[in-house]
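User:
Note these tokens:
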Amino acid sequence: MAQKTYAQGGIEAVAEEMRKDKTIFYMSTDAIPSLLEEFGEQRVRATPIAESAMTGMAIGAAGSGFRPIVDWRQVTFSFVAMDQIVNQASKIHYMFGGQVKFPILFRAGVGGGTRLAAQHSQSPYSMFMNLSGLKIILPSTARDAKGLLKSAIRDNNPVISFESNRLMGFKDEVPDDDDFTIPIGKADIKRKGGDVTVIATMAMVRPAMQAAEQLAAQGVELEIIDPRTLRPLDLETIIGSVMKTNRCVIVHEGWTQFGFGAEIAAAIMEHAFDWLDAPVARVGMGDVPMPYNDTLERAVIPGAAQIVETVRRVTYSS
């Protein structure tokens, strides 16, 4: 085990898999220097600013026996390639009757907190969740980044990895084992508790843990669940926790309205309604584009205070 940053966890995952499998190659408008130095220009391609082109190239390469990795840098640039993502990547395995595999990893930075302003601070998970045929991962730690990305690279389906801009410099323990993986579709219980289930993703896990510490001092124990994967979603872990605590708060950095929290809330209502002692509550970003101004940015991103307030509401505390 070694202390590594969130960004380093992702780079390590890619490098380890590229050493093992010569069919893997990396495309990005900003090639990662360490990967370029080790694997050369044949396998680490610094592309023109043409996301639709490199996404289309990746789909063709995947169908021809390669395992491409496409790094869009920011999710903003994936929108340029929506035809390739929506009409090709998410459907092509089905359209070929399952006869051809299309193993592709798409990487994209998401979220605010780094003053990248409205276009480069988006968290549009729900847009992509609505596409059958894509898998979606959201690592919240360096350990998760390494383990989930390795699983995504090995997967025979298209996978999108949304990675938090704000977490890039955060460190935690990462296994040195180059066979270490985390299965896609398995949530992680970051903290056990019996009073309220809090479902938090990526950069929201830390404020959720801070809220748990504050509330524990007042006798309220939160169970913090990090889904880690949005498609497929580990409903078994989520529903099991809600049946235990009888209350649920969902925290994510995307907009509350029409966000993925609404899908999780609906699933809880369908599968655990009789166990609920309060309505499922959601905490999300303010319904505005992300501001550039630091004060305004902090005002619209959820934090521990909003989580504490929402937990008090579902526990009917003052």
Observations:
- Residues 60 and 143 are 31 Å apart (CA to CA).
- The two ends are 43 Å apart (CA to CA).
- The chain has a mean pLDDT of 92.
- The chain has two domains: 2-174, 188-314.
